[in-house]
Design brief:
alpha+beta, three-stranded antiparallel β-sheet, 2 helices, elongated
Length: 69
């Protein structure tokens, strides 16, 4: 989350969200990277993503964070 990045400028970096989408719905999700608070924020945001119906697919998507300048 942005407060974590502001409070800990060294927390900047990448978070990889790994999710499984099955028939348009996210069936599992995890994130790893910068800081647990930032990872939780990424998970919360990604859970709002919408996907078209279809088969099962595994996705890894990188997010890069840096403090605002």
């Amino acid at each position: 989350d942005e407060r974590t990045l502001v409070a800990n400028p060294n927390s900047a970096g990448a978070v990889a969200a790994t999710l499984t989408v099955d028939d348009g719905s996210i069936t599992s999700i995890k994130a790893a990277g910068v800081h647990p608070d930032v990872e939780a924020c990424v998970i919360k945001a990604v859970q709002l993503f919408k996907f078209p119906p279809g088969g099962k697919v595994d996705v890894t998507y990188p997010f890069t964070f840096k403090p605002a300048s």
